[in-house]
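[retry 2/3] Extracellular solute-binding protein family 1: previous attempt timed out, resubmitting with same input.
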Amino acid sequence: MTPPPQLGRLGDVALDRRSFLGMLAAGAAVVGVPSLLSACSPGTPTATATGAAAAGDVIPTYIPVTYAEPDYPSVDGSVPGYETIPAELVRSVQTAPGTGLVFTAMTPLWGTIPPTKGNKYYEAVNGLLGSDITFQITDGNVYGDKLATVLASPKDVPDWVCVPTWNLPPRFGAEIVGNVFQDLTPFLAGDLVEDYPNLANIPSDAWKFCVFNGRLYGLPFPGETITDAIFYRKDVLDGLGITPDVKNAQDLLDLAKELTGGNVWGAEDLWNTAAIIHGVVPKWKLEGDTLVHRVETDEYRAALEWNAALFASGSVHPDAVAGQTGDAKMRFQGGQSLIANDGVGGWHEAMRDNLASNPSYWQQPFDPFAADGGTPVLWKGNPANIFSFLKKTDDEARIKELLALANVLAAPFGTVEFDTITNGVEGVHYTRGDDGLPVPTDLAATELQPTYIFLVDPPLAESHVQYPGYVKAVSEWKAKASGFAQDPLFYAQQIVEPAQYASIGQPFVDLEKDISRGRKSMKDLDAAIETWRSSGGEELRAFYQDILDSQA
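[retry 2/3] Extracellular solute-binding protein family 1: success.
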Protein backbone atom coordinates (compact mmCIF):
# COMPACT_ATOMS: atom_id res chain seq x y z
CA MET A 1 0.00 0.00 0.00
CA THR A 2 1.38 3.39 -0.97
CA PRO A 3 -0.18 6.82 -0.81
CA PRO A 4 -0.85 8.85 -3.95
CA PRO A 5 2.34 10.07 -5.58
CA GLN A 6 2.26 13.79 -4.89
CA LEU A 7 1.85 15.93 -1.82
CA GLY A 8 0.35 19.33 -2.42
CA ARG A 9 2.65 22.21 -3.32
CA LEU A 10 3.20 24.98 -0.85
CA GLY A 11 0.25 26.87 -2.26
CA ASP A 12 -1.87 24.55 -0.17
CA VAL A 13 0.85 23.25 2.13
CA ALA A 14 1.20 26.76 3.54
CA LEU A 15 -1.95 26.03 5.46
CA ASP A 16 -2.26 22.41 4.44
CA ARG A 17 0.60 20.80 6.23
CA ARG A 18 -1.66 17.85 6.92
CA SER A 19 -2.71 17.10 3.35
CA PHE A 20 -0.83 13.84 3.71
CA LEU A 21 -3.43 12.81 6.28
CA GLY A 22 -6.01 13.02 3.58
CA MET A 23 -3.98 10.58 1.54
CA LEU A 24 -3.66 8.30 4.52
CA ALA A 25 -7.36 8.47 5.14
CA ALA A 26 -8.05 7.72 1.52
CA GLY A 27 -5.49 4.95 1.21
CA ALA A 28 -5.24 3.56 4.71
CA ALA A 29 -8.70 3.99 6.12
CA VAL A 30 -9.64 1.40 8.69
CA VAL A 31 -13.01 0.58 7.20
CA GLY A 32 -12.91 -1.19 3.87
CA VAL A 33 -9.16 -1.39 3.27
CA PRO A 34 -8.45 -4.73 1.57
CA SER A 35 -5.31 -5.44 3.60
CA LEU A 36 -7.34 -5.34 6.78
CA LEU A 37 -9.60 -8.09 5.50
CA SER A 38 -6.66 -10.43 5.49
CA ALA A 39 -4.19 -11.46 8.10
CA CYS A 40 -2.13 -8.54 6.82
CA SER A 41 0.78 -8.86 4.48
CA PRO A 42 4.20 -9.46 6.02
CA GLY A 43 4.85 -5.74 5.79
CA THR A 44 1.57 -4.67 7.34
CA PRO A 45 1.60 -3.92 11.06
CA THR A 46 -0.78 -4.32 13.86
CA ALA A 47 1.33 -4.88 17.51
CA THR A 48 2.90 -7.40 19.73
CA ALA A 49 0.62 -9.41 21.95
CA THR A 50 2.57 -8.42 25.01
CA GLY A 51 3.06 -4.80 24.00
CA ALA A 52 -0.53 -3.71 24.10
CA ALA A 53 -1.26 -5.02 27.56
CA ALA A 54 1.63 -3.12 29.06
CA ALA A 55 1.08 0.07 27.08
CA GLY A 56 -0.48 1.91 29.99
CA ASP A 57 2.70 1.50 32.02
CA VAL A 58 5.09 2.85 29.41
CA ILE A 59 3.30 5.61 27.49
CA PRO A 60 3.88 9.30 28.31
CA THR A 61 1.46 11.17 30.52
CA TYR A 62 -0.91 13.28 28.43
CA ILE A 63 -0.48 16.96 29.33
CA PRO A 64 -2.41 19.09 26.82
CA VAL A 65 -1.18 22.57 25.95
CA THR A 66 -2.90 25.24 23.86
CA TYR A 67 -1.12 28.20 22.26
CA ALA A 68 -4.13 29.40 20.24
CA GLU A 69 -7.73 29.03 21.34
CA PRO A 70 -9.72 27.19 18.68
CA ASP A 71 -12.93 28.60 17.25
CA TYR A 72 -14.25 25.05 17.27
CA PRO A 73 -12.88 23.08 20.24
CA SER A 74 -12.36 19.34 20.07
CA VAL A 75 -15.46 17.27 20.83
CA ASP A 76 -15.04 13.58 21.65
CA GLY A 77 -11.58 13.63 20.08
CA SER A 78 -12.46 15.62 16.97
CA VAL A 79 -9.90 17.96 15.43
CA PRO A 80 -10.10 21.54 16.76
CA GLY A 81 -10.80 24.19 14.11
CA TYR A 82 -9.27 27.64 13.63
CA GLU A 83 -10.89 30.21 11.37
CA THR A 84 -7.96 32.63 11.57
CA ILE A 85 -4.20 32.43 11.81
CA PRO A 86 -2.98 34.05 15.06
CA ALA A 87 -1.47 37.49 14.55
CA GLU A 88 1.06 36.75 17.28
CA LEU A 89 2.78 33.39 17.37
CA VAL A 90 4.34 31.90 20.50
CA ARG A 91 7.75 30.31 20.53
CA SER A 92 7.12 27.17 22.53
CA VAL A 93 10.81 26.31 23.02
CA GLN A 94 12.54 29.55 23.92
CA THR A 95 16.10 28.38 23.30
CA ALA A 96 17.28 26.05 20.56
CA PRO A 97 18.04 22.82 22.43
CA GLY A 98 20.67 21.35 20.12
CA THR A 99 24.42 21.34 20.70
CA GLY A 100 25.43 21.77 17.06
CA LEU A 101 25.57 18.09 16.21
CA VAL A 102 24.63 16.73 12.81
CA PHE A 103 22.04 13.92 12.77
CA THR A 104 20.96 11.86 9.79
CA ALA A 105 17.28 11.15 9.17
CA MET A 106 15.64 8.81 6.68
CA THR A 107 12.18 9.80 5.43
CA PRO A 108 9.85 9.20 2.48
CA LEU A 109 8.52 11.91 0.20
CA TRP A 110 5.67 11.84 -2.29
CA GLY A 111 6.95 14.79 -4.27
CA THR A 112 10.09 16.38 -5.68
CA ILE A 113 13.07 15.85 -3.41
CA PRO A 114 14.40 19.29 -2.46
CA PRO A 115 18.07 20.30 -2.61
CA THR A 116 19.94 20.19 0.68
CA LYS A 117 22.86 22.49 -0.10
CA GLY A 118 21.99 26.13 0.54
CA ASN A 119 18.37 25.25 1.37
CA LYS A 120 17.09 28.22 3.38
CA TYR A 121 14.12 26.24 4.67
CA TYR A 122 16.37 23.62 6.23
CA GLU A 123 18.59 26.38 7.59
CA ALA A 124 15.60 28.03 9.27
CA VAL A 125 14.23 24.89 10.91
CA ASN A 126 17.66 23.64 11.92
CA GLY A 127 18.21 27.07 13.44
CA LEU A 128 15.23 26.48 15.73
CA LEU A 129 16.68 23.09 16.60
CA GLY A 130 20.23 24.16 17.30
CA SER A 131 21.52 21.05 15.55
CA ASP A 132 21.35 19.97 11.93
CA ILE A 133 19.16 17.19 10.59
CA THR A 134 20.52 15.92 7.30
CA PHE A 135 17.79 14.13 5.39
CA GLN A 136 18.15 10.96 3.37
CA ILE A 137 14.94 11.18 1.35
CA THR A 138 13.51 8.37 -0.75
CA ASP A 139 10.55 8.37 -3.13
CA GLY A 140 7.62 7.25 -0.99
CA ASN A 141 6.45 4.77 -3.61
CA VAL A 142 9.61 2.68 -3.18
CA TYR A 143 10.36 3.62 0.42
CA GLY A 144 9.49 0.18 1.75
CA ASP A 145 12.20 -1.42 -0.37
CA LYS A 146 14.77 1.10 0.79
CA LEU A 147 13.72 0.67 4.40
CA ALA A 148 14.07 -3.11 4.24
CA THR A 149 17.56 -2.78 2.80
CA VAL A 150 18.71 -0.31 5.44
CA LEU A 151 17.26 -2.26 8.35
CA ALA A 152 19.03 -5.40 7.15
CA SER A 153 22.34 -3.73 8.01
CA PRO A 154 22.05 -2.07 11.44
CA LYS A 155 25.37 -0.26 11.14
CA ASP A 156 23.96 1.68 8.17
CA VAL A 157 20.82 2.81 9.97
CA PRO A 158 20.54 6.62 10.22
CA ASP A 159 20.07 8.36 13.57
CA TRP A 160 16.37 8.88 12.95
CA VAL A 161 14.16 6.68 10.76
CA CYS A 162 10.57 7.22 9.63
CA VAL A 163 8.52 4.03 9.31
CA PRO A 164 5.02 4.21 7.77
CA THR A 165 2.85 1.43 9.12
CA TRP A 166 2.33 -0.04 5.66
CA ASN A 167 6.12 -0.34 5.26
CA LEU A 168 6.85 -2.26 8.45
CA PRO A 169 9.04 -5.17 7.35
CA PRO A 170 8.47 -8.77 8.40
CA ARG A 171 9.44 -9.61 11.98
CA PHE A 172 9.86 -5.94 12.80
CA GLY A 173 8.50 -6.39 16.31
CA ALA A 174 10.15 -9.74 16.92
CA GLU A 175 13.66 -9.14 15.64
CA ILE A 176 14.28 -5.57 14.47
CA VAL A 177 12.87 -2.94 16.77
CA GLY A 178 14.64 -3.99 19.97
CA ASN A 179 17.97 -4.66 18.29
CA VAL A 180 18.13 -1.61 16.03
CA PHE A 181 16.16 1.15 17.74
CA GLN A 182 16.27 2.90 21.08
CA ASP A 183 13.86 1.97 23.85
CA LEU A 184 12.36 5.36 24.76
CA THR A 185 10.55 4.11 27.84
CA PRO A 186 13.25 5.32 30.29
CA PHE A 187 13.07 8.78 28.71
CA LEU A 188 9.36 9.38 28.08
CA ALA A 189 7.22 7.00 30.13
CA GLY A 190 4.74 8.57 32.51
CA ASP A 191 5.80 11.90 33.97
CA LEU A 192 9.27 11.69 32.42
CA VAL A 193 7.74 13.32 29.35
CA GLU A 194 7.35 16.56 31.29
CA ASP A 195 10.84 17.45 30.09
CA TYR A 196 9.35 17.60 26.59
CA PRO A 197 6.05 19.54 26.84
CA ASN A 198 5.18 19.39 23.14
CA LEU A 199 5.59 15.62 23.13
CA ALA A 200 3.42 15.45 26.24
CA ASN A 201 0.73 17.27 24.24
CA ILE A 202 0.35 14.28 21.89
CA PRO A 203 -2.70 12.17 22.88
CA SER A 204 -2.17 8.86 24.63
CA ASP A 205 -3.70 6.66 21.91
CA ALA A 206 -1.04 7.78 19.42
CA TRP A 207 1.66 6.76 21.89
CA LYS A 208 0.01 3.39 22.54
CA PHE A 209 0.46 2.56 18.88
CA CYS A 210 4.22 3.12 19.30
CA VAL A 211 4.58 0.31 21.87
CA PHE A 212 6.32 -2.90 20.79
CA ASN A 213 6.98 -5.82 23.11
CA GLY A 214 5.71 -3.85 26.06
CA ARG A 215 8.16 -0.98 25.55
CA LEU A 216 7.86 2.45 23.96
CA TYR A 217 9.96 2.75 20.83
CA GLY A 218 8.25 5.10 18.40
CA LEU A 219 7.47 8.79 18.02
CA PRO A 220 4.03 9.23 16.42
CA PHE A 221 2.44 11.12 13.54
CA PRO A 222 -1.08 11.42 15.03
CA GLY A 223 -4.05 10.51 12.83
CA GLU A 224 -7.75 11.27 12.54
CA THR A 225 -10.32 9.73 14.87
CA ILE A 226 -12.73 9.31 11.96
CA THR A 227 -10.84 8.65 8.75
CA ASP A 228 -13.58 8.41 6.11
CA ALA A 229 -16.66 10.23 4.92
CA ILE A 230 -19.42 9.76 2.34
CA PHE A 231 -19.47 12.88 0.16
CA TYR A 232 -22.01 14.30 -2.24
CA ARG A 233 -21.75 17.24 -4.63
CA LYS A 234 -23.80 19.75 -2.69
CA ASP A 235 -23.29 22.49 -5.27
CA VAL A 236 -24.71 20.31 -8.03
CA LEU A 237 -27.62 19.07 -5.93
CA ASP A 238 -28.43 22.65 -4.91
CA GLY A 239 -28.58 23.54 -8.60
CA LEU A 240 -31.02 20.68 -9.14
CA GLY A 241 -33.17 21.83 -6.23
CA ILE A 242 -32.43 18.63 -4.29
CA THR A 243 -31.84 18.73 -0.55
CA PRO A 244 -30.82 15.21 0.46
CA ASP A 245 -32.36 13.75 3.58
CA VAL A 246 -30.50 10.49 3.99
CA LYS A 247 -31.34 8.67 7.20
CA ASN A 248 -30.75 5.03 6.20
CA ALA A 249 -29.31 2.76 3.52
CA GLN A 250 -32.47 2.75 1.41
CA ASP A 251 -32.51 6.55 1.36
CA LEU A 252 -28.99 6.55 -0.09
CA LEU A 253 -29.93 3.99 -2.75
CA ASP A 254 -32.97 6.06 -3.69
CA LEU A 255 -30.91 9.25 -3.92
CA ALA A 256 -28.25 7.62 -6.10
CA LYS A 257 -30.94 6.38 -8.47
CA GLU A 258 -32.66 9.79 -8.53
CA LEU A 259 -29.39 11.48 -9.50
CA THR A 260 -28.63 9.07 -12.35
CA GLY A 261 -29.52 10.21 -15.84
CA GLY A 262 -27.98 11.40 -19.09
CA ASN A 263 -24.22 11.48 -18.66
CA VAL A 264 -24.37 11.69 -14.88
CA TRP A 265 -24.40 8.78 -12.45
CA GLY A 266 -25.49 8.85 -8.86
CA ALA A 267 -22.44 7.20 -7.36
CA GLU A 268 -19.02 5.67 -7.57
CA ASP A 269 -18.35 2.23 -6.10
CA LEU A 270 -19.59 2.70 -2.51
CA TRP A 271 -18.15 -0.43 -0.92
CA ASN A 272 -16.41 1.67 1.71
CA THR A 273 -19.70 3.45 2.35
CA ALA A 274 -21.47 0.11 2.68
CA ALA A 275 -18.99 -0.97 5.34
CA ILE A 276 -19.35 2.33 7.20
CA ILE A 277 -23.12 2.51 7.35
CA HIS A 278 -23.44 -1.16 8.30
CA GLY A 279 -20.87 -0.79 11.08
CA VAL A 280 -18.56 -3.47 9.67
CA VAL A 281 -15.71 -3.97 12.14
CA PRO A 282 -12.14 -3.39 10.93
CA LYS A 283 -11.13 -6.95 11.78
CA TRP A 284 -12.57 -8.72 14.83
CA LYS A 285 -15.55 -8.43 17.15
CA LEU A 286 -16.63 -10.28 20.26
CA GLU A 287 -19.99 -12.03 20.21
CA GLY A 288 -20.34 -13.23 23.76
CA ASP A 289 -17.03 -14.90 24.44
CA THR A 290 -16.37 -15.77 20.80
CA LEU A 291 -14.06 -13.89 18.46
CA VAL A 292 -15.73 -13.34 15.11
CA HIS A 293 -13.79 -12.13 12.09
CA ARG A 294 -15.22 -9.30 10.05
CA VAL A 295 -15.99 -11.52 7.05
CA GLU A 296 -18.06 -13.80 9.28
CA THR A 297 -20.30 -11.03 10.58
CA ASP A 298 -23.87 -10.25 9.60
CA GLU A 299 -22.80 -6.65 9.06
CA TYR A 300 -20.27 -7.65 6.41
CA ARG A 301 -22.84 -9.77 4.60
CA ALA A 302 -25.41 -6.96 4.71
CA ALA A 303 -22.84 -4.47 3.39
CA LEU A 304 -22.10 -6.71 0.42
CA GLU A 305 -25.78 -7.17 -0.33
CA TRP A 306 -26.36 -3.42 -0.18
CA ASN A 307 -23.48 -2.61 -2.50
CA ALA A 308 -24.68 -5.26 -4.93
CA ALA A 309 -28.10 -3.60 -4.90
CA LEU A 310 -26.46 -0.25 -5.68
CA PHE A 311 -24.68 -1.71 -8.71
CA ALA A 312 -27.82 -3.52 -9.82
CA SER A 313 -29.76 -0.26 -9.75
CA GLY A 314 -27.63 1.16 -12.56
CA SER A 315 -26.55 4.10 -10.41
CA VAL A 316 -22.80 3.39 -10.45
CA HIS A 317 -20.62 5.11 -13.03
CA PRO A 318 -19.69 2.65 -15.81
CA ASP A 319 -15.97 3.21 -15.28
CA ALA A 320 -16.37 2.25 -11.63
CA VAL A 321 -18.31 -0.83 -12.70
CA ALA A 322 -15.33 -1.67 -14.92
CA GLY A 323 -13.05 -1.40 -11.90
CA GLN A 324 -11.40 1.89 -12.83
CA THR A 325 -11.39 3.19 -9.28
CA GLY A 326 -8.23 5.27 -9.66
CA ASP A 327 -10.14 7.99 -11.50
CA ALA A 328 -13.06 8.09 -9.06
CA LYS A 329 -12.06 11.45 -7.58
CA MET A 330 -11.70 12.98 -11.02
CA ARG A 331 -15.14 11.77 -12.04
CA PHE A 332 -16.71 12.97 -8.80
CA GLN A 333 -15.06 16.36 -8.89
CA GLY A 334 -15.93 16.71 -12.56
CA GLY A 335 -19.62 16.10 -11.83
CA GLN A 336 -19.84 12.80 -13.71
CA SER A 337 -20.77 11.07 -10.45
CA LEU A 338 -22.33 12.76 -7.44
CA ILE A 339 -21.76 10.49 -4.42
CA ALA A 340 -18.36 9.05 -3.48
CA ASN A 341 -16.24 7.76 -0.61
CA ASP A 342 -13.10 9.57 0.41
CA GLY A 343 -10.81 10.15 3.33
CA VAL A 344 -11.76 13.20 5.35
CA GLY A 345 -8.60 14.95 4.16
CA GLY A 346 -9.90 14.68 0.62
CA TRP A 347 -12.40 17.43 1.41
CA HIS A 348 -9.95 20.30 1.63
CA GLU A 349 -7.81 18.81 -1.14
CA ALA A 350 -10.85 18.96 -3.43
CA MET A 351 -11.39 22.59 -2.47
CA ARG A 352 -7.75 23.30 -3.31
CA ASP A 353 -8.01 21.63 -6.69
CA ASN A 354 -11.37 23.00 -7.85
CA LEU A 355 -12.19 26.43 -6.41
CA ALA A 356 -10.04 28.35 -8.89
CA SER A 357 -11.88 26.93 -11.90
CA ASN A 358 -15.24 26.49 -10.16
CA PRO A 359 -15.75 29.05 -7.36
CA SER A 360 -19.08 27.47 -6.37
CA TYR A 361 -17.57 24.01 -5.91
CA TRP A 362 -18.63 22.34 -2.69
CA GLN A 363 -18.67 18.74 -1.61
CA GLN A 364 -20.36 17.86 1.63
CA PRO A 365 -20.26 14.70 3.74
CA PHE A 366 -23.58 13.19 4.76
CA ASP A 367 -24.22 13.33 8.46
CA PRO A 368 -23.46 9.92 10.00
CA PHE A 369 -26.30 7.44 9.64
CA ALA A 370 -26.78 3.71 10.11
CA ALA A 371 -28.11 1.42 7.42
CA ASP A 372 -31.18 0.56 9.51
CA GLY A 373 -31.82 4.15 10.54
CA GLY A 374 -30.64 3.52 14.10
CA THR A 375 -27.60 4.87 15.91
CA PRO A 376 -24.48 4.91 13.70
CA VAL A 377 -21.32 3.08 14.71
CA LEU A 378 -18.10 4.63 13.39
CA TRP A 379 -14.93 2.70 14.12
CA LYS A 380 -11.92 4.78 15.02
CA GLY A 381 -8.99 4.81 12.65
CA ASN A 382 -5.46 4.00 13.72
CA PRO A 383 -4.29 6.67 16.19
CA ALA A 384 -1.12 6.94 14.08
CA ASN A 385 -0.26 5.66 10.62
CA ILE A 386 3.37 6.77 10.62
CA PHE A 387 5.97 6.80 13.33
CA SER A 388 9.72 7.25 13.63
CA PHE A 389 12.47 5.58 15.62
CA LEU A 390 15.85 6.61 17.00
CA LYS A 391 18.90 4.47 16.37
CA LYS A 392 19.99 2.48 19.39
CA THR A 393 22.99 3.86 21.27
CA ASP A 394 24.63 3.77 24.67
CA ASP A 395 25.05 7.55 24.51
CA GLU A 396 22.19 8.77 26.71
CA ALA A 397 22.98 12.42 26.02
CA ARG A 398 22.53 11.80 22.29
CA ILE A 399 19.07 10.33 22.79
CA LYS A 400 18.06 13.19 25.05
CA GLU A 401 19.18 15.71 22.45
CA LEU A 402 17.22 13.96 19.72
CA LEU A 403 14.13 13.97 21.93
CA ALA A 404 14.66 17.67 22.58
CA LEU A 405 14.70 18.22 18.83
CA ALA A 406 11.55 16.13 18.53
CA ASN A 407 9.97 18.38 21.14
CA VAL A 408 10.58 21.37 18.85
CA LEU A 409 9.18 19.56 15.81
CA ALA A 410 6.05 18.61 17.77
CA ALA A 411 5.18 22.25 18.48
CA PRO A 412 1.45 22.70 17.82
CA PHE A 413 -0.59 25.22 15.85
CA GLY A 414 -0.12 28.77 17.07
CA THR A 415 3.64 28.52 17.56
CA VAL A 416 6.62 29.96 15.73
CA GLU A 417 7.97 26.46 15.26
CA PHE A 418 4.78 25.15 13.65
CA ASP A 419 4.62 28.17 11.36
CA THR A 420 8.24 27.83 10.27
CA ILE A 421 7.97 24.09 9.62
CA THR A 422 4.74 24.69 7.70
CA ASN A 423 5.51 27.87 5.75
CA GLY A 424 9.24 28.44 5.87
CA VAL A 425 10.63 31.96 6.15
CA GLU A 426 8.54 35.05 5.45
CA GLY A 427 9.99 37.05 2.58
CA VAL A 428 11.87 33.99 1.38
CA HIS A 429 9.35 31.18 1.05
CA TYR A 430 6.16 33.21 1.28
CA THR A 431 4.74 36.70 1.40
CA ARG A 432 1.49 37.85 2.95
CA GLY A 433 -1.51 38.42 0.75
CA ASP A 434 -4.13 41.12 1.34
CA ASP A 435 -5.99 38.66 3.53
CA GLY A 436 -2.89 38.04 5.63
CA LEU A 437 -2.48 34.48 4.44
CA PRO A 438 0.87 33.12 3.25
CA VAL A 439 1.43 33.22 -0.49
CA PRO A 440 4.28 30.90 -1.54
CA THR A 441 7.21 32.18 -3.55
CA ASP A 442 8.83 30.35 -6.42
CA LEU A 443 11.65 29.29 -4.10
CA ALA A 444 9.16 27.54 -1.84
CA ALA A 445 8.24 25.10 -4.60
CA THR A 446 11.90 24.12 -4.85
CA GLU A 447 13.03 24.13 -1.22
CA LEU A 448 10.04 23.46 0.96
CA GLN A 449 8.69 19.94 0.99
CA PRO A 450 7.17 18.16 4.00
CA THR A 451 10.14 16.35 5.54
CA TYR A 452 10.33 17.19 9.24
CA ILE A 453 6.73 16.12 9.74
CA PHE A 454 7.70 12.51 9.05
CA LEU A 455 9.85 12.48 12.18
CA VAL A 456 7.17 13.55 14.64
CA ASP A 457 4.07 15.67 14.34
CA PRO A 458 1.82 17.55 16.77
CA PRO A 459 -1.88 16.85 17.25
CA LEU A 460 -4.01 17.74 14.26
CA ALA A 461 -5.37 21.24 13.83
CA GLU A 462 -7.96 22.21 11.23
CA SER A 463 -6.78 25.54 9.84
CA HIS A 464 -7.60 25.65 6.12
CA VAL A 465 -8.87 29.21 6.42
CA GLN A 466 -8.24 29.96 2.75
CA TYR A 467 -11.41 28.09 1.80
CA PRO A 468 -14.45 30.16 2.83
CA GLY A 469 -16.78 28.26 5.14
CA TYR A 470 -14.62 25.17 5.18
CA VAL A 471 -13.26 25.28 8.74
CA LYS A 472 -16.75 25.73 10.19
CA ALA A 473 -18.24 22.96 8.07
CA VAL A 474 -15.50 20.41 8.64
CA SER A 475 -15.18 21.14 12.37
CA GLU A 476 -18.90 20.76 12.94
CA TRP A 477 -19.04 17.56 10.89
CA LYS A 478 -16.06 16.02 12.68
CA ALA A 479 -17.52 16.94 16.08
CA LYS A 480 -20.79 15.25 15.14
CA ALA A 481 -19.10 12.17 13.69
CA SER A 482 -16.76 11.75 16.67
CA GLY A 483 -19.79 11.40 18.88
CA PHE A 484 -20.45 8.03 17.23
CA ALA A 485 -16.83 6.84 17.35
CA GLN A 486 -16.06 3.54 19.03
CA ASP A 487 -12.81 1.72 19.72
CA PRO A 488 -12.53 -1.42 17.61
CA LEU A 489 -11.29 -4.55 19.31
CA PHE A 490 -7.49 -4.39 19.75
CA TYR A 491 -7.57 -0.63 19.14
CA ALA A 492 -4.16 1.10 19.30
CA GLN A 493 -2.32 -2.19 19.69
CA GLN A 494 0.67 -3.21 17.61
CA ILE A 495 -0.11 -6.86 16.91
CA VAL A 496 2.28 -8.58 14.53
CA GLU A 497 0.51 -11.57 13.03
CA PRO A 498 2.35 -14.77 12.09
CA ALA A 499 3.52 -14.55 8.49
CA GLN A 500 1.85 -17.81 7.46
CA TYR A 501 -1.54 -16.09 7.63
CA ALA A 502 -0.51 -13.23 5.36
CA SER A 503 -2.55 -14.17 2.31
CA ILE A 504 -5.58 -16.07 3.59
CA GLY A 505 -7.81 -13.00 3.41
CA GLN A 506 -6.86 -11.95 -0.12
CA PRO A 507 -9.73 -13.86 -1.82
CA PHE A 508 -12.22 -11.55 -0.09
CA VAL A 509 -10.78 -8.52 -1.86
CA ASP A 510 -11.74 -9.96 -5.23
CA LEU A 511 -14.97 -11.42 -3.88
CA GLU A 512 -16.17 -8.00 -2.72
CA LYS A 513 -15.75 -6.71 -6.25
CA ASP A 514 -17.39 -9.74 -7.83
CA ILE A 515 -20.42 -9.86 -5.52
CA SER A 516 -20.95 -6.12 -5.83
CA ARG A 517 -20.99 -6.41 -9.61
CA GLY A 518 -23.24 -9.47 -9.67
CA ARG A 519 -20.55 -11.83 -10.94
CA LYS A 520 -20.74 -13.98 -7.81
CA SER A 521 -23.31 -14.63 -5.10
CA MET A 522 -23.54 -14.87 -1.34
CA LYS A 523 -23.07 -18.65 -1.69
CA ASP A 524 -19.58 -17.85 -2.93
CA LEU A 525 -19.07 -15.82 0.24
CA ASP A 526 -20.09 -18.83 2.36
CA ALA A 527 -17.59 -21.00 0.51
CA ALA A 528 -14.84 -18.42 0.87
CA ILE A 529 -15.43 -18.18 4.62
CA GLU A 530 -15.12 -21.96 4.98
CA THR A 531 -11.90 -21.90 2.97
CA TRP A 532 -10.58 -19.07 5.12
CA ARG A 533 -11.33 -21.00 8.29
CA SER A 534 -9.63 -24.16 7.07
CA SER A 535 -6.66 -22.29 5.58
CA GLY A 536 -5.58 -20.72 8.84
CA GLY A 537 -8.51 -18.61 9.97
CA GLU A 538 -9.19 -20.78 13.01
CA GLU A 539 -5.52 -20.67 13.98
CA LEU A 540 -5.55 -16.91 13.55
CA ARG A 541 -8.62 -16.72 15.77
CA ALA A 542 -6.76 -18.71 18.43
CA PHE A 543 -3.79 -16.35 18.09
CA TYR A 544 -5.99 -13.36 18.87
CA GLN A 545 -7.80 -15.23 21.61
CA ASP A 546 -4.46 -15.76 23.33
CA ILE A 547 -3.90 -12.01 23.21
CA LEU A 548 -7.32 -11.38 24.73
CA ASP A 549 -6.70 -13.94 27.44
CA SER A 550 -3.33 -12.38 28.30
CA GLN A 551 -5.00 -9.00 28.79
CA ALA A 552 -7.90 -10.26 30.88
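[retry 2/3] Extracellular solute-binding protein family 1: The domain at 227-378+496-548 is CATH 3.40.190.10 (D-Maltodextrin-Binding Protein; domain 2).
[retry 2/3] clearing retry counter.
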